[in-house]
Amino acid sequence: MAQHPSSHLERFGERTRLVHAGREPFEQHGFVNTPIYRGSTVLYPNTEDFLARRAKFTYGTQGTPTIASLERAWSSLAGAADTVLTPSGLAAVTIALLTVCRAGDHLLVSDSAYRPTRIFCDGVLKRFGVETTYYDPLVGAGIEALFRPNTRAVVTEAPGSQTFEMQDIPAIAAVAHARDAAVLMDNTWATPLFFPPHAMGVDIAIEAGTKYLSGGSDLLLGLTSANERWAKPLRQTFQAFAMCAGPEDVFLGLRGLRTMALRLKEHEKQALEMARWFAARPEVARVLHPALESDPGHAIWKRDFKGSSGLFSVVLKPASPAALAAMLDGLELFGIGASWGGFESLVLPFDPAAYRTATTWQAEGPALRFHIGLEDLDDLRTDLEAGFARLRATA
Ligand SMILES: *Cc1c(COP(=O)(O)O)cnc(C)c1O
User: Are 24 and 56 spatial neighbours (Cβ–Cβ below 8 Å)?
Assistant: First the structure.
């Protein structure tokens, strides 16, 4: 291998890019991976270079070879002009919002957005003079009616957090761009492997690398990528905050990247099988998973997405809190906890009724969000069958 292909990857397929992007072995003495660079000070060879800040790397907060490796790889994967890495997925959201918003702006945010995104809009952004209107995630091109002269950006997320509504991103982007507004998207569920955000009209895309880039519940990381129009403002905002990710988490993110396609395919397969199993259970009222033919968002998912990941929700028939607790507390293989994207299965009860404002959450009974891990499905089913038996016995 005379020259590593990392610098001219665009002609290669996605899986080849996942393997090669961001690696420069011959800048690392031939070692396959870019190592963890730790550091604050970066030395300059002379005064002139220092005064001009003429160097590939200038200071620890502004980038290291490890960080640059993952940024380049992610830009290649997402079809972005640039990517910045943040210390968490939520930081990736807030950096994206701070890149586009100015005092006096108006923001349109999907009612199904990740809840901490709402909290940032209603708290910090409000304090700095940015007003947020929440909209029905199913609005599509109808978003036009909600625009004001000062609407600066539309924040999307597909499918929606916990409730899995699909959004018509190309339709929303067409309206927003005609009005010179930016389109932000939290693409954590699909990742660029299943939804190429910038090719679909998204200006700034957000990924919680904590989830599928990690694949191991062992790191916190955010990735914010931008198209040509927004790349420079994004980089400038990121530098102003110096919101840099930790070196070890970035290294683990690079490690996860190489196998992400395989893991995602397996999560997809496992989750689809479990979603169909839930749909046939007598205790279940509805399954919220856009890759199921019965899902209201299926047509959009089929048109725009290349796959589905391991996260979906289930609405149960009416059950008491005690019955639900009996079901969940006895599960052996499903952990109860936030976050997802790791190798292990998780379950979480949720109720968005308390904080949604543009839509009304109506559910037949308690709602549960599942992440399906890489375990044997027979074992997961046995665990859940016992859980449903406890639910029925307590009801
Ligand atoms: C988890 C998550 C985030 C935040 O990621 P953290 O790394 O936990 O801060 C943002 N958006 C979505 C959709 C998520 O699921």
Answer: no
Polymer length in residues for the chain: 395
Same domain, 240 and 283: no
Query: How far apart (Å, rounded) are the C-alpha atoms in residues 276 and 74?
Result: 33
Q: What is the pLDDT of residues 96-115, one digit of tens each?
A: 999 999 999 999 999 999 99
Work out the angle at residue 313's Cα, subtended by the Cα atoms of residues 213 and 209, and round it to the nearest 5 degrees: 15
Read off the pLDDT of residues 150-207 as tens digits, 9 standing for 90 and up: 999 999 999 999 999 999 999 999 999 999 999 999 999 999 999 999 999 999 999 9
Handedness of CA 77, 83, 86, 92 (dihedral sign): negative
Q: How far is the CA of 222 from the centre of ligand 1 (A)?
A: 8
CA of 340 to the centre of ligand 1 (A): 9
Do 78 and 118 belong together in one domain?
Answer: yes
Q: Count of domains in the chain?
A: 2
Residue 2 lies in a domain: no
Measured in Å, residue 66 CA sits from the centre of ligand 1 at 22
CA of 90 to the centre of ligand 1 (A): 6
Q: What's the CATH code of the domain at 346?
A: 3.90.1150.10
Q: Which atom of ligand 1 is nearest to the CA of 222?
A: 7
Residue 7 makes CB contacts below 8 A (sequence gap 6+) with none
Give the CATH number for residue 142.
3.40.640.10
The preferred substitution site among 184, 186, 217 for testing ligand 1, maximizing ligand atoms within 8 Å of CB, is 186
Taking the C-alpha atoms of residue 353 and residue 93, their distance in angstroms, rounded to an integer, is 23
